Amino acid sequence: MNTSVITDAMNKDFVLAVEGLTVSFDGFKAVNDLSFYVDENEIRVIIGPNGAGKTTVLDLICGRTKATTGSIRFKDRELTKMKEHEIVRAGVGRKFQNPSIYEDLTVFENLEISYPKGRSVPGALTFRRDAAVKERVQEIAETIFLADQLDQRAEYLSHGQKQWLEIGMLLIQDPELLMLDEPVAGMSVSERKKTAELLNTIIKNRSVIVIEHDMKFVEDIAHKVTVLHQGKILSEGSMAKVQADPKVIEVYLGH
Amino acid sequence: MSSNNDNSHKFSSTRRKLLMGMAALPAAPLLASSGLFSSPAFAQALATSAVNTTGLAVTDTDVTVGILHSVTGTMAISETGSVQAEKLAIDQINKSGGVLGRQIKYIQEDGASDWPTFAEKAKKLLVNDKVAAVFGCWTSASRKAVLPVFEQYNGILYYPTFYEGLEQSKNVIYTGQEATQQILAGLDWVNKEKGAKSFYLIGSDYIWPRTSMKIARKHIENKLGGKVVGEEYFPLGHTQFNSVINKIKLTKPDVIYAAVVGGSNVAFYKQLKAAGIDLSKQNLLTISVTEDEIDGIGGENIAGAYSSMKYFQSLDNPNNKEFVAEFKKMWGDKTVIGDVTQAAYLGPWLWKAAVEKAKSFDVDKVAEASVDVEFAKAPEGYVKIHPNHHLWSKARIGQAQADGQFKLVHETADLIEPDPFPKGYQ
Amino acid sequence: MSKSSGRTFFLRPQDIIGIIVLAFVLVVVLPLALDNFRLQFVGKYLTYAFVALGLVLCWGYAGILSLGQGVFFGLGGYCMAMFLKLEASSVENTKIQTTPGIPDFMDWNQITALPWFWEPFHNLGFTALAVILVPALFAFIVGFAMFKRRVGGVYFAIITQALAAIMTILIIGQQGYTGGINGITDLRTLNGWDIRTDSAKTVLYFVCVGLLLACILVAYFVKSSKLGRILVAMRDKEDRVRFSGYDVASFKVFVFCLAASLSAIGGAMFTLQVGFMSPSFVGIVPSIEMVIYTAVGGRLSILGAVYGTLLVNWAKTSFSESFPELWLFGLGGLFIAVVLAFPNGIAGLWQTYVAPHLGPLFGGAAKRTATPPAATPPAATPPTPTPPAAPPSGTAAPAAAE
Amino acid sequence: MFAEYSLSELSSIFLMQGFAGLILFSVFVLMALGLAIIFGQMGVINMAHGEFMILGAYVTYFTSQFFLNYIPALFGIYFFIAMILAFFASGALGMAVEWLMIRRLYKRPLDTLLATWGLSLILQQVYRSVFGPREVGVELPGWMMGSLPVTDVVEVQINGLFVMGLTIAITVAVALLMYKSAWGKQVRAVVQNRVMAGAVGINTEKVDRYTFGLGCGIAGVAGSAFTMIGSTGPTSGQLYIVDTFLVVVFGGAQSLLGTIASAFTISQAQSTLEFFLSGSMAKVLTLLGVVIILMLRPQGLFVIKVRR
After folding, report:
1. Which of B267, C12, D15, D236 is the most buried (most CB within 10 A)?
2. Structure confidence by residue, pLDDT tens digits, D43-61
3. Where are the domains of chain C?
4. Is the pTM value of this prediction over 0.90?
5. D2/chain C closest Cα distance in angstroms
6. Mind telling me which residue stretches traverse the membrane in this protein (chain D) (predicted)?
7. Cα–chain-centroid distance for residue C390?
């Protein structure tokens, strides 16, 4: 991609514009001069071999890792200068690769903490569990198939249920950009099916970036696919186009 | 308080640690020869109701006192000797017939090197156990912590340590030296004998060394016309003295004047020696090293230094010879006796004398009678209680020897008057 | 949905029962059972319970282990001591001094005028505010600097420990301003009311109990608020909380400051009841000892902290009266036992062995058994290996002892 | 403050002051090395480190007594034997402690802190009950005391040289052990990934035990060496604990080099400050400086992997 082609005016059409992004750890460039753009309501899938820098890209967008150079603009706001919680409040949600939930709390409490109100210290002290909160939690719980487990401590959920709970925790924030890191990894076949169904309902009205290895799954959901290799974009486009790209074939299948 | 006189009976049967001295043995030779205080006959005549009007733990046959020192924690190092001396004195008094015909029992409590614990235990001894007197405390901080307790519940404390002065209480008898008694004579001596004019002051960083150094500085500058070339304080427990030793080498003082305490003491002298400062050539006068400390420092590391105290184990007088023999008999041949240990030993004896003078165990009467009470058999020689409740005593300079003992090199001709609030030194 | 929808008040029924039982013990049972002398000891121990209470929130809930709580206890105590000392140092009380009207230790140190930072402590209102705010401010500075830079866990513990060491050296070294190693002693009256009499000590005991109960309510309020759940969430998955839109550092700073203020109230009550304040509370040793009170009570149990404090101190006093040499073995053994065998302290034992039998008696306990069987952790299993030592029973644990 | 001194005096003093700083540096390295292994490699916070040192000091004391009483002819060399005995005594105690206590706590670093604090209280009381509450004076062979005159003013402390030599020797030995030996590779493997290390056949439990034992053994040797410059009593170990932890933490805990660099920085700062300021203030300023730097730059100094 040639960044100079893109003008500022065009930025406004994108929910997310990543330009010239580079991050190096002790000289090793995990992400190297990366640029890509995500449209409104687009589902973008990032694929690539292990160590291609996929998770690092998500870390950079959500502020967990600081970029060495480059810019990340979300709805015209520069994310590289913002702190993690500010990025979240701006409307970016992130699901981690391993289910990251609060094991000591109940499902209800897990969702409640993610409810986007009372996020400051005084706010959290005076936060009341009113009807609106309960209603919203119930609604999300039904979406993620956990309505019967609301009073259950999260550590007793199955692996798949934990993944759903984390997705639910993101949904309750209603983010405009949702980033999912391998949402179906480690799931049973039936769980995987249910998750695909879940994803299909939640991706409406928001942009989504998904990292996934499962090609079948990718084919089902992707609008556009970006292939990363050694921190750089190898290929980008529709699933069919990417699959036909000889460079991709070479990387995936070897010489 | 809800407790009353019955307590004295209740506790005596239940106290686990209550130890009674061996009563029926023949009186120790020390006392048999003195004949000063051993007069059981007249004591028997006094009824308990007459000698104890304030509900202390006194019965027809015995009287209970408290011993309050640290047997655990960092201060146990120093306070062990005091406990031993007090137990020895109590034992001897019991053998000689007790106090007003009553045997002394003691309750020992552990201050655990922690000042609030001292206050708590002092309160227990006074309120719960109703002890007639307490022998205890070592550091100033522990004394400061218990002082309000003694004043409030009207107890009497015999405090053995040489200390900074600036205190005087009806409820305390200070059997150690206040600062001027310990400091001035020593400075005069080193000025006169060694022609010392310049002094380097070094101490641990707390109230006793700082107050002592303040007095020393005034004396050096105003009375001796000398000069202080350095003054340094180190946190308690500091173990690195190489930098200050370099400063000493740079300033070349006639005298290093030291008041370093505890674990720092050991480090200081070992490092001085290692740095090649030969204490037989470089004068060093300390107010914080007794035979007890030399045990930890090692005699070979401090040999040659001078210490300003009122008592040394090596004092050559009949009282002391008996005392040292008795002490070693009770606590073992290897035990050494330092200045504070001896001062602690005076406590029970001075109390006995005051009680018998007052013909009462009542604290008010004992405190009043204490003025001008004397103890001729003191190992350090004759001592007498001043109206300000400190002791008249001599000052002595000893030179440390490699065997861990001091050789007496100077002693004041007369007893020095205690002056806890010295004019011109504040 | 029964439980999650039924929480309108911040205390659950079993919390209320627990608080009433504790209040009954402190207000009725102990004063009747103990003579005045022992009751004063209890009053002193209760001042440490404030520290333990703060540690429950800070360490138990938020996972921040501070080894410098003694600093805050000391700061609160010193603020109160400064007020009392000024009152005790009236011109006529101190006329023998070179400079009458200033504290005696200043006079001994050739200070001839009251230092500026002592001046406001003539005022009781200012003093009361300072007791709470000075430690909180100090905690804020330390906490802000460290949590913003994500210093946590072991490093936080060691740095707070170093701060305790620095504070001790400073207080001892600046004796002209602080009273040095002896501390500020010989405190007499509070606005003319003699605090040394037995009747005053009894009154102070009840004031202390009242304040403690108030602080317990504050702790419960915080714990049961969303903030309390965020603290638990943070201890468990800090990143998830951060990526749920929370500024994690500010929550940590808040709870650290709250713990500091609670400790300071304890320190001020200590000064009032015991009559002096000294640097021996500020150092490393007392700070770590205060952690053990919390651990014995149960690091997740607010009421357990009070019982733990009373138990350890009672053991210390009675042990050291009978076998002073053995006390350190007991205390050391307690540290090891509570870490190896009872990570949830008394509260955990209560929950495992006593509470199940009380189930029918308590509405709350009965309700808990109604949760699905999978939610009930198997009894007496070792804690799950999630640092920092998240116990299996988690938030449910404190319910039992309370 | 230097106006009244001649140039040669000044240069001599600065020379000696530099030497004093080096001694302090060696002392810090000796104190911290054992802890750096235990804390840096294993993530265990051993608050009883000082007590392991004092065990070494007591061993030295008893060895000296033995030589004095039974083989006075060889008194001159007893110190070397004492150090070896101290290493094994503290190391054995360390391994026992690891087996009884520490191995159950690897996943809870903060709890090791509390448990080892309890251990330190118990050890202190054991020392007090067994060896008595008073400090003991360890007598040194004559050749180890005193100093070598270089010029009129400049003198080099023999025990200082000895401590320096010992520090270098132990540091080199540890470095070789950790970075060159097969055993060191195993230790580092376990630190980085204990599951994997276990899977490839490393006995992780044994590695843990010996690593902990090694750290404690080095503490014992340090304690033995410190009888030359400090006190030996039941509570003497407490004198070192704060400094030691700060050195290790300031150095970034994981690397040996970090510990050495941090010991150098702190010792030079303290020794220089002590020369220009009073002792107490020097200490406060040094500690405060370390704490503030740690607060401001944790990311640079905290490159450490605590075992998870």
Report:
1. D236
2. 888 999 999 999 999 999 9
3. 2-325
4. no
5. 26
6. 12-40, 77-97, 158-179, 212-233, 239-263, 275-296
7. 21
